[in-house]
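Form 7-S
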Amino acid sequence: MLRTQLNDELKNALRRQDKPTIATVRLILAALKDRDIAARGEGNSEGIDEEEIQRMLQKMARQSREAAETYQQAGREDLAEKERKEVAIIERFLPRQLDEAETHVAVDAVIADLGAESVKDMGKVMNRLRETYAGRMDFSKASALAKERLK
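Output:
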């Protein structure tokens, strides 16, 4: 489904002559093709699955956000803005991310559900969050929040 959505978006962007979208979707498709080739080398003739595509997109979005911050700190607002636009385009293909308040509620609910009491329970909490909110949560923020709650 994501593969089809990406290809359709590229065709539409080409029709609209939307250069930022064209460049970003081509970048995504190139990364996807690289991962598919690597997967075929490991015996997976179908390439990577939807879940792996989502993880790839999340990683690309995170890298672009970090690049935007770096550019902004270096005083290169033009490049930072380009990276922020790239993040917005990538996020069109991802499920809606939980906001900070929703992340707090989710972390608290999992901690309560598991009866987690100390940092020793971090692994259980993070595994449950990953199972329940795969692709919809920033797990680095959730991890920091859970660690704070489990002191």
